[in-house]
Design goal:
The chain has 101 residues and is an alpha+beta fold. It has helices at residues 9-17, 25-35, 78-94, and strands spanning 43-49, 53-59, 67-75. Helices cover 37% and strands 23% of the residues. A hairpin with a 7-residue loop joins strand 2 and strand 3. The model has no long low-confidence stretch (mean pLDDT 92).
Amino acid sequence: MYQIDPARVELAAEFKARPFGPHSGDLHRLLNLMRAQTLPGRLALLTLIPHREWALIRLGPPRGGRFEIVEGVRYHSPAEAEWDVFKRRWQAMTGQALAID
């Protein structure tokens, strides 16, 4: 199984530069791994105001579609939101914070 190599920060830089693609094969594999986390606890985005404001949520069990809004976290652009979720997933999966901002 593919695992995240925390030394591959160039993949994080590639994602930050082009969060909506196109992505290299290595970045694509990394994103698939990040997005394949188990549902309870997975981070996602919720649109609060279409095209203007998003919130960070933590998904609950699949039945019932419950989620928890992460208080105090709001985004005003899709790129900002995607980058923050990427950084949070990276840290959760590698144990290391990204030094890219």
